[in-house]
User: What shape does this take?
Amino acid sequence: MNYDLGVLSPAEAVFLKESPNGTPKNWIDCKDASFKIIPLENGKKAGFIILPFLEKGSNDVPEELISEVAALIKKYRDKTDILIGISSLGYFREKKLLASPQLTEVPMDILLGGGDGPGMTGTLVNSRKTLWIRSYPTGKAVNRIDIFQWPSHDADFKWTSGQNVKWFLQSLLENVREEPAVLKLIKGISDEK
Assistant: This one.
């Protein structure tokens, strides 16, 4: 499948580790907050802040986590060309995280959200410095982001739809061809619902 990075919940990590095919290359668990740099074409670098999995039951975001994310952004902002957060925190926690004064001061460029709550094709937050997209819970669509211009981290930078970025939702309908590598990965796994 040639994924550069995949993020698994702790339960998914255990499940895949015990599966016949194991965990795919470059897929990691999100038990703790972490950071990964992936080299891109033309010497560019994408930085990924992987937010930890938090159990359901509260919409609060621990202050320590907010401080940790802000510290990661500050540490890697000048070492990468784009900073992307990957989250399974859920809609309300992500909203609180993005609205925290620490992250409005040093926003990430993109937040790929997931977990409880609604899916979103995308919205611009933090004075249009962060594009926030949330996957849809049933897995029947893929969010796509086209970046036409690298974000600068100066005070004047803003994402502008159709100019420096475009985002949309690609529905996975019957007319989308099945990928053999994906079928191999999920072979033998049944949906008990």
User: Anything to note?
Assistant: Strands lie at 6-8, 27-29, 34-39, 45-50, 82-86, 110-113, 120-125, 130-134, 141-147, 165-171. Residues 59 and 93 are 5 Å apart (CA to CA).
